[in-house]
Amino acid sequence: MYAHARPTATVLVNKGAAAQVSHAAHALVDGSSSAYFRPCASYWRVQRPESPSKRHFTTTPRTQFQERYFPPADTKNIKITRPAWHHPIYTEPQMNAIQVAHRERKTWSDVWALAMVRLLRFGMDTATGYSHPTEEAKNMGSWLGLSKVKSWFGPSPMTERKWLMRFLFLESVAGVPGMVAGSVRHLHSLRRLKRDNGWIETLLEEAYNERMHLLTVMKLAEPGRFMRAMIIAAQGVFYNMFFMSYLFFPRACHRFVGYLEEEAVLTYTRAIGDIEAGRLPKWQKLEAPEIAVKYWNMPEDHRTMRDLLLYIRADEAKHREVNHTLGNLEQKNDPNPFVSEYEDPSRPHPSKGIENIKPTGWNREEVI
User: Fold this and answer.
1) Confidence band for 120, pLDDT divided at 50, 70 and 90
2) I want to staple 227 with a disulfide (CB 3.0 to 4.6 A). Which of 40, 91, 187, 265 is the partner?
């Protein structure tokens, strides 16, 4: 996508060799940096107030980092490739109005979907070192149901590094369901010789949006070998399990994604809360990467890390609404209400934006 876009602030790097680290340390003359080395990812930040827009010092050479994850396009005639789907404009009041919410279980498929989300959430918490007080989580709307959450790294406050590690893993998994569902429905349409009534486009756009989240985080975080191995393993297992499940239980799969997005909204809400409470000082003045500014059309005076998380949280809330709604519909025949025209446009109805967002989804009788 924006292969040549440059990060504007913090960069995560892999653990370098001792010689590289030693050379890097001698290069720092202002003494304002701090280093972190962890199994999954680490970062080395240098604050330079006089030039905040420049990429900060890293033990990974700039060209090596860019070419590994954002290879420059070697094209003679093409200047830039625009996104296939243009993101709707979100206003600040709309994003601030997003709330943590939960759809109550009504059927056995809902029970199954929520149980799978709880299992996945436990594995993700363990893998990324995520921990928080259980009572506080329950008050904010978490339905994990565990008496105590532990991780391989032990219970500890969430830091900027741990948040970025979690975002990386979360977004690499979140981009799978939309692509799987869209491809399955595409094949169904070809095989049945019937139109899909608009579902495929929305599902593929959801997968694209989640991948843009990942690319944005990648501008702030370079994963280590352990994190890359976890992503490969998780994708290999999750993709195939979701594919087989969607073939036979598409309604339950949409409910599963709806519950998963509920937890994603909770995760980003907690991260935003940590920024507002001053527990993440390195993110107080950190600017969003250029790829995020272009994709979300972020206003010039609203490009902080907090603003970026507000945009991502709003997207996750939209996916929550979409999948809960699709889970309420007749899977083979009902049209997609998010791309349909309505008899009475003045009545609130689903749309691509978040102006009429309904956290627990629209019931079938409301839209069909």
Assistant:
1) confident
2) 40
